[in-house]
User: Which sequence fits this backbone?
């Protein structure tokens, strides 16, 4: 099969293959077709010289809110992904069983960007989240809809990758772990992983971790105090180490209130890297402090993580969390998505959610996107 597109001469960083080398990547029929030097182009093959850029598998943002127009926190997935180098946006609970059909028909299906979803166990998902209204959907237990959630998740397995629940003072009031237990019942019923949001107690970080199963995701994992994974002495809490040991995954989910440099420095100093880096992008953080996926990745690069580890946390690790091994890799036969980035040098001001600033000397910038084996952005 002739190649549709060849990315020529870029530095290919693909942690799924432990690959970091200058080479070509070719696409055909919507998939990765070949990797190697001097790949031959046919007359109809589009060839892009990317010799000044880094080629990674298509970035996966494991925590986004892209039910644009259906919820007040939703942003436009295509616009966001063009700027952030994201080829797969995973919506985490914007919709519940009562409104997922609209999300699917009006946003997901027309989108050029792949959108997958964690389905909220609450009937209408995260419906009361804006600059003026803050209503924790998990606080009202009458909105928990496990029976319909199981039905909707089972009927939409092509798009729904797991079950979402938000617990904490701001999202579940004094309901504690009750919404989490209800969501876990649904996840067990449909055989899917769960993603749990955590904010201020109750419940505690430890109470939430104790319930999570191998493959479940704790998002907002590097939160500021309270409900932080680090101790006052700068060590990692035993409950966190025990949870990782049994297979619980730790996701960043930066957002408006869920990432602190102080926490991240402590965790990284102890060798505890996040499994996945995600932006938790929504209307209240797209203009800061999160901004986008590559800015969130840049913060970890500036805090000392190697580029390959940062890329892994936004590609292959995320694909494994989603149980979609065809994503997050440039192995031949995988989905033909790729992201082109550059590493800019200079002085860059990064901010976390508690107002601390970090002046970093590097910034990851999105320079282009390939989706389904075709050059997508910029035109």
Assistant:
């Amino acid at each position: 099969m002739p190649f549709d597109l060849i990315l020529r001469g870029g530095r290919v960083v693909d942690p799924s293959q432990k690959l970091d080398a200058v080479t070509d990547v070719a696409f055909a029929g919507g998939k990765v077709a070949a990797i190697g030097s001097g790949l031959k182009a046919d007359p109809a093959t589009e060839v892009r010289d990317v010799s000044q850029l880094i080629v990674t598998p298509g970035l996966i943002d494991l925590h986004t809110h892209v039910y644009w127009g259906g919820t007040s926190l939703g942003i436009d997935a295509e616009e966001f992904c063009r700027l952030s180098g994201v080829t797969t946006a995973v919506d985490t609970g914007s919709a519940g069983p009562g409104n997922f059909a609209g999300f699917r028909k009006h946003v997901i299906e027309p989108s050029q960007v792949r959108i997958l979803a964690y389905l909220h166990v609450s009937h209408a998902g995260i419906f009361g989240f804006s600059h003026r209204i803050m209503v924790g959907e998990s606080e009202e237990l009458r909105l928990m809809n496990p029976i319909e959630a199981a039905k909707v998740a089972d009927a939409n397995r092509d798009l729904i990758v797991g079950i979402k629940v938000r617990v904490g003072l701001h999202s579940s009031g004094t309901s504690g772990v009750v919404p989490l237990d209800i969501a876990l019942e649904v996840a067990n019923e449909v055989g899917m992983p769960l993603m749990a949001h955590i904010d201020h107690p109750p419940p505690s970080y430890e109470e939430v971790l104790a319930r999570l199963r191998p493959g479940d995701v704790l998002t907002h994992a590097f939160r500021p105090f309270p409900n932080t994974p680090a101790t006052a002495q700068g060590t990692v809490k035993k409950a966190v180490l025990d949870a990782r040991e049994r297979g619980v995954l730790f996701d960043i989910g930066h957002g408006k209130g869920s990432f602190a440099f102080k926490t991240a420095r402590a965790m990284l100093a102890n060798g505890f890297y996040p499994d996945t880096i995600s932006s938790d992008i929504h209307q209240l953080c797209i203009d800061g402090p999160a901004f986008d996926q590559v800015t969130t990745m840049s913060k970890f690069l500036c805090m000392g993580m190697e580029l390959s580890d940062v890329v892994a946390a936004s590609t292959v690790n995320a694909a494994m969390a989603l149980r979609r091994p065809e994503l997050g890799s440039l192995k031949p036969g995988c989905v033909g998505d790729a992201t082109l980035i550059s590493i800019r040098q200079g002085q860059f001001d990064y901010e976390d959610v508690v107002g601390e600033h970090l002046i970093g000397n590097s910034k990851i910038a999105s320079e282009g996107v390939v989706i389904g084996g075709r050059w997508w952005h910029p035109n």
User: Anything to note?
Assistant: The chain is about 25% helix and 30% strand. Residues 178-190 form the longest helix (13 residues). The chain has two domains: 5-56+333-375, 59-322. The first strand starts at residue 5 and ends at 14.
